[in-house]
Amino acid sequence: MRRRIDSLIGQVVAANAVLVVLTLLSATLVAGLRLEGRQLAVLMMAVALTLVVNVWMLQRRFAPLDRLIREVEQVDPARPAEARLARPDERIAEIDRLARAFERLLESIERERRRSGQLVLRAQEEERKRLARDLHDETNQALTGILLRLEALAHDLPAQLRPRVVELKQLVSGAMDELVTLARQLRPAALDDHGLVAALEAQLARLRSRSGVAAELLVSGEPERLSPDQQSALYRIAQEALTNAQRHARATRIEVELACSGDCARLTVTDDGVGFDPTSDADGGLGLRGMAERARLAGGELDLRSAPGSGTAVSATIPLLVTHDGNGQLTAAALTGDTER
């Protein structure tokens, strides 16, 4: 059975109406009055007027609460921290407290979401690093052993069978090259050893050698101020944007700009490809949601500008004012959003 939901204002009006009627009837009985036609009409008009005034006052008092409820219902769950509830000109203490409490709740939810998201991304990067190390140290070494055995086998086989061994050696060498490429994509050694700028340079060099695209990196400011977590986030965003430019946009020129100045770092990937309509709801395999989520979890935002036939520009902006420990890792305060700014 579905429960009936009554509005608060309706319940208050009904309670006030009952009280008014009971009060008037009690006063009439105590005074011993006999209400006749005209007197009864006046009494009913007084009751009706009282209820009308009561409804008007209640609606006026409850209007800010109704507006607050509507604004709460329009909050974007993906961006709770951006919600700012409007305050009425005529402030009501209880409603103002309720709005502030809801904003604090949204901020704490956003902090926890960012903290948990950062921990998930860090765990993903650690797993990528482990897989890359296993591919390089174990699988690649096993293939190297197979290659050496094929080399030894080629000397013992008849001459007519050696071309087949050469073909097998080529297949193994190709598999080794694929494994090296996969390991670099999972976790580039340059990112851990030399930082974001070196990793981007290596990524662009591979892009130029594979596809012949004219790719350029521009760096300004102090990229060393970025924490390892922020560098990983920006690198993954750049990696996805470069893949899109090559695979989907069919670009012939790509420019990557990293600017770290003031209190923010901005990474921009621009291409001269075919472009697309960014207002379309379909992600189309471009990984746009993933890039936006990475930027958001790093405390920043992603800006996408594109149009059919006009190329694409992807820009990620993240704050630099975060607390680090001695190893350059985000501290608990930074992860939970408690850093003083």
From TrEMBL:
<feature type="transmembrane region" description="Helical">
    <location>
        <begin position="39"/>
        <end position="58"/>
    </location>
</feature>
<dbReference type="Pfam" id="PF07730">
    <property type="entry name" value="HisKA_3"/>
</dbReference>
<comment type="function">
    <text>Member of the two-component regulatory system NreB/NreC involved in the control of dissimilatory nitrate/nitrite reduction in response to oxygen. NreB functions as a direct oxygen sensor histidine kinase which is autophosphorylated, in the absence of oxygen, probably at the conserved histidine residue, and transfers its phosphate group probably to a conserved aspartate residue of NreC. NreB/NreC activates the expression of the nitrate (narGHJI) and nitrite (nir) reductase operons, as well as the putative nitrate transporter gene narT.</text>
</comment>
<keyword id="KW-0004">4Fe-4S</keyword>
<keyword id="KW-0597">Phosphoprotein</keyword>
<keyword id="KW-1133">Transmembrane helix</keyword>
<feature type="domain" description="Histidine kinase">
    <location>
        <begin position="134"/>
        <end position="322"/>
    </location>
</feature>
<protein>
    <recommendedName>
        <fullName>Oxygen sensor histidine kinase NreB</fullName>
        <ecNumber>2.7.13.3</ecNumber>
    </recommendedName>
</protein>
<feature type="domain" description="HAMP">
    <location>
        <begin position="59"/>
        <end position="114"/>
    </location>
</feature>
<dbReference type="Pfam" id="PF02518">
    <property type="entry name" value="HATPase_c"/>
</dbReference>
<dbReference type="GO" id="GO:0051539">
    <property type="term" value="F:4 iron, 4 sulfur cluster binding"/>
</dbReference>
<keyword id="KW-0812">Transmembrane</keyword>
<dbReference type="InterPro" id="IPR050482">
    <property type="entry name" value="Sensor_HK_TwoCompSys"/>
</dbReference>
<keyword id="KW-0411">Iron-sulfur</keyword>
<dbReference type="InterPro" id="IPR003594">
    <property type="entry name" value="HATPase_dom"/>
</dbReference>
<feature type="transmembrane region" description="Helical">
    <location>
        <begin position="12"/>
        <end position="33"/>
    </location>
</feature>
<keyword id="KW-0963">Cytoplasm</keyword>
<dbReference type="InterPro" id="IPR005467">
    <property type="entry name" value="His_kinase_dom"/>
</dbReference>
<dbReference type="InterPro" id="IPR036890">
    <property type="entry name" value="HATPase_C_sf"/>
</dbReference>
<dbReference type="GO" id="GO:0046983">
    <property type="term" value="F:protein dimerization activity"/>
</dbReference>
<keyword id="KW-0175">Coiled coil</keyword>
<keyword id="KW-0472">Membrane</keyword>
<dbReference type="GO" id="GO:0016020">
    <property type="term" value="C:membrane"/>
</dbReference>
<keyword id="KW-0902">Two-component regulatory system</keyword>
<dbReference type="GO" id="GO:0005737">
    <property type="term" value="C:cytoplasm"/>
</dbReference>
<keyword id="KW-0067">ATP-binding</keyword>
<keyword id="KW-0418">Kinase</keyword>
<dbReference type="GO" id="GO:0005524">
    <property type="term" value="F:ATP binding"/>
</dbReference>
<dbReference type="InterPro" id="IPR003660">
    <property type="entry name" value="HAMP_dom"/>
</dbReference>
<keyword id="KW-0479">Metal-binding</keyword>
<keyword id="KW-0408">Iron</keyword>
<keyword id="KW-0547">Nucleotide-binding</keyword>
<dbReference type="GO" id="GO:0000155">
    <property type="term" value="F:phosphorelay sensor kinase activity"/>
</dbReference>
<dbReference type="GO" id="GO:0046872">
    <property type="term" value="F:metal ion binding"/>
</dbReference>
<dbReference type="InterPro" id="IPR004358">
    <property type="entry name" value="Sig_transdc_His_kin-like_C"/>
</dbReference>
<dbReference type="InterPro" id="IPR011712">
    <property type="entry name" value="Sig_transdc_His_kin_sub3_dim/P"/>
</dbReference>
<feature type="coiled-coil region">
    <location>
        <begin position="92"/>
        <end position="141"/>
    </location>
</feature>
<keyword id="KW-0808">Transferase</keyword>
